[in-house]
Amino acid sequence: MNSLPIHHLPPKSTTTAAAAASYTAISSFLSIPNFSAGPQSYSLHRRRFRINKSLSHSSSYSNQMAAANSDEIRASPSPTVISLKPIEATPESFHEFGQVIVASPDGDEFGPRDAQLDLSHGIPRFYIMHLEDRPLEFSTITHHASVTQCLGSIGGHVWYLGVAKPSTIDPSEITGTVGSNLVQSHCGHFYAPPKIDDVRVFKIAGPTFLKLNRGTWHAGPLFLEKTMDFYNLELSNTNVIDHTTHNFAKKNNVIFSFVE
């Protein structure tokens, strides 16, 4: 049988054109760009399409997760803001939480109006504490179970302190089980969480300082100034081994605020 002359065979350009036409149809079906370079570009773009498709799924999953997190945030109720009226700190108004110490004449002997300190569980630390940006609101409150604490503004400026009565519990008095009404601190001692209705805010001004009883819950110092310095008397390791905090926002869904 005589073979066809070479010029009777389909030209190579026809094969390329047919492949390009097939690629155009596939491109239309898959909604991907049409490359004019032929089958090699199609093979390359198939790989790109698989990558893009994978990225699209990843992006879609990220968007779904973001939407879910957004829905969860929207579903969580915002904390209730409880407005408190500041109380002027006096020896009488502050007696459940500690003492208000005012100036006394030089030469007076030690007496009940002086700070009744308990620094017996460690090395006393007396230092100047520099604070910045402490607005008139709080959602956490802290106590120190093993030491009294003294706080005073250097310069006698106006400042505020949120407080609640001590609620530490002697282990010998524990009759129930640890639960919502009885908590063991990471520091080792037991306590009852502070009650919302027991929280107060005190205003301190002038040449005076506060002595907090052992276990008194406190939030602050808080102030309107940009920065303030305070002298602070506690133990050298108070903030390391004796620092128990209750988070009202997480535990009670409330925050406290006050204005002057």
Structural class, judged by helices and strands? alpha+beta
Shape category? globular
Enumerate the strands of the largest sheet in spatial order, edge to edge or round the barrel: 3-13-7-15-4
Q: Assembly type of the shown chains?
A: single chain
Quickly count the helices.
Answer: 4
Question: What proportion strand?
Answer: 25-35%
Structure write-up:
The protein is built from four helices and 17 strands. The chain is α+β, with helices and mostly antiparallel strands and 260 residues long.
Concise overview:
It comes from Erythranthe guttata. The protein is an alpha+beta fold and 260 residues long.
Summary keywords:
single chain; 260 residues; alpha+beta; Jelly Rolls; four-stranded mixed β-sheet; globular; disordered N terminus
SSE layout and pairings?
Elements: H1 12-30, H2 39-75, E1 80-83, E2 87-88, E3 98-102, E4 124-132, E5 137-138, E6 140-143, E7 149-153, E8 159-164, E9 168-169, E10 183-184, E11 190-191, E12 200-204, E13 208-212, E14 217-222, E15 227-235, H3 238-241, E16 244-247, H4 248-251, E17 254-257
Parallel strand pairs: 1-17, 2-12
Antiparallel strand pairs: 3-13, 4-15, 5-17, 6-16, 7-13, 7-15, 8-12, 8-14, 9-11, 10-11
